[in-house]
Write a structure and sequence with these properties.
Layout lengths: L11 H8 L4 H5 L7 H9 L2 E8 L2 E8 L6 E4 L2 E6 L7 H8 L2 E7 L6 E11 L2 H5 L10 E13 L2 H6 L16 H8 L6 H14 L3
Antiparallel strand pairs: 1-2, 1-5, 3-4, 4-7, 5-6, 6-7
Pfam families: PNPOx_N (PF01243)
Protein name: Pyridoxamine 5'-phosphate oxidase family protein
InterPro entries: Pyridox_Oxase_FMN-dep, Pyridox_Oxase_N, Split_barrel_FMN-bd
């Protein structure tokens, strides 16, 4: 897409002029620790998005478990278990190169989200892994996040998207199946039909 340079925002002053001053509440809501009210959000959240950056680019990865799966160790530290996945480990590779991370917590039915920025380290301490036992399975590692800033995001985005509205849910059949996607991306060399048929049992059997 070709854009007219005359209409591109290219400096901070122009951007500030475009949007105006930040609201007082948007400044006061940011703190450098996990306040008890913010802790309540984290402990109620069964889902979060983990954002990282590294030499290979950016990554935003979903993380989910029963509510409270991200442990507030203290007001400056979060613990995030890394559960079984596809072993791409994009997020973890990024953390090794650049420890900066961002987390976005979502609580079902709640419009506000919680944002945490910080720096992460990867631990495989057996005692730490044991704290996250699930059905007799341990995570491969735990991200120890040093908290830098925490603040909530207002509900506008979730209200506009109707994310929690049951009437807005899209049937899975309305989108291409994962097997179909893999088959088409590989010009039919990947057996997508078999993949789709076996997927539900494989996911259920490998959650942890």
């Amino acid at each position: 897409m070709r854009l007219d340079p005359a209409h591109l925002v290219s400096d901070a002053d122009a951007l500030q002029t475009l949007y105006g001053a930040s609201g007082e509440a948007s400044i006061k809501k940011e703190v450098d620790h996990v306040h008890p009210h913010y802790r309540a959000f984290i402990e109620a959240a069964p889902f979060a998005v983990l954002a990282t950056a590294g030499p290979g680019g950016l990554d935003a990865s979903p993380r989910g478990d029963p509510a409270g799966f991200v442990v507030v160790e203290d007001e400056k530290t979060l613990l995030l278990p890394d559960r079984r996945g596809n072993n791409r480990i994009d997020s973890l590779r990024n953390v090794l190169a650049d420890p900066r991370v961002a987390l976005l917590f979502l609580v079902p039915g709640v419009g506000e989200t919680l944002r945490v920025n910080g720096a992460a380290r990867i631990s495989v301490d057996p005692a730490l892994l044991a704290r996250f036992d699930m059905d007799g399975k341990l995570p491969r590692s735990v991200l120890v996040v040093d908290v830098h800033t925490v603040y909530f995001q207002c509900s506008r985005a979730l209200l506009r998207s109707k994310l929690w509205d049951p009437q807005a849910q899209v049937p899975r059949s309305a989108l291409p199946s994962v097997g179909r996607i893999l088959s088409d991306l590989t010009a039919g060399t990947f057996d997508g039909a078999t993949y789709d048929r076996e997927l539900p049992a494989r996911v259920a059997g490998t959650l942890y």
